[in-house]
């Protein structure tokens, strides 16, 4: 990925990220320096990612959802995120084009990576999301979507799917 001797971002990765994200060379270099300080080996493990994710949701349980987000961004399926995967993840979730966000959302819900999203997969993701909603806020949800199963049923019906998909 980077130059092993200097720890610098490789030209190939830099050019790829400049082409495929909205970030400038200067921004990417700053991100890379920060990434290297936090992850000296150049990779974020799933456990580290879950810990970082948890800091954004201190009063809930984001571990399950973070695991799914991590899986969707670990494009080479090696159990870690390298700098390129990390930046692509940031770009997609913050400023990526709509069709790329939709592709990412599909990959998030396609838990078994078989190219289809089942009702059980939707329920798994919705359940993980519900664990991030504080119980007092869950009580404020409309009756027809105040549980993971009800929300899944409503979403599934919206997309006009039968019980089996």
Layout of helices and strands:
Layout: H1 11-20, H2 25-38, E1 43-45, H3 46-56, H4 63-73, E2 80-82, H5 83-94, H6 98-109, H7 119-130, H8 135-138, H9 148-158
Antiparallel strand pairs: 1-2
Helix pairs in contact: 3-4, 4-6, 7-9
Helix and strand content put the structural class at mainly alpha
Structure annotation, total helices: 9
Unreliable parts: 1-6
Radius of gyration: 18 Å
Q: Could you give the order of the helices and strands?
A: HHEHHEHHHHH
Question: Termini separation (Å)?
Answer: 41 Å
CATH architecture label name of the largest domain? Orthogonal Bundle
CATH superfamily of the largest domain: EF-hand
Q: State the total count of DSSP E strands.
A: 2
Count up the domains: 2
Largest beta sheet: strand ordering: 1-2
**CATH class bucket of the largest domain:** Mainly Alpha
Largest sheet: 2 strands, antiparallel
Overall pLDDT, averaged? 88
For this structure, the CATH topology of the largest domain is Recoverin, domain 1
Bin the helical content: 55-70%
Task: Categorize the overall geometry.
Answer: globular
Binned strand content: under 5%
Family: Belongs to the recoverin family.
Keywords: Calcium, Lipoprotein, Metal-binding, Myristate, Repeat
Protein name: VISI protein
GO molecular function: calcium ion binding
């Amino acid at each position: 990925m980077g130059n092993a001797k200097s720890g610098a971002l490789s030209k190939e990765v830099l050019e790829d990220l400049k082409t495929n994200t909205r970030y400038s060379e200067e921004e990417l270099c700053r991100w890379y320096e920060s990434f290297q300080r936090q992850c000296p080996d150049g990779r974020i493990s799933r456990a580290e990612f879950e810990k970082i994710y948890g800091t954004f949701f201190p009063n809930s349980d984001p571990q399950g959802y973070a695991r799914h987000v991590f899986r969707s961004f670990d494009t080479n399926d090696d159990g870690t995120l390298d700098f390129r995967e990390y930046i692509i993840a940031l770009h997609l979730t913050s400023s990526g084009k709509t069709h790329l966000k939709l592709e990412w959302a599909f990959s998030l819900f396609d838990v078994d990576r078989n190219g289809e999203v089942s009702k059980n997969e939707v329920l798994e993701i919705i359940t993980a999301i519900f664990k991030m909603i504080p119980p007092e806020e869950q009580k404020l949800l409309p009756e027809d979507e105040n549980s993971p199963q009800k929300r899944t049923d409503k979403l599934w019906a919206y997309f006009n799917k039968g019980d089996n998909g």
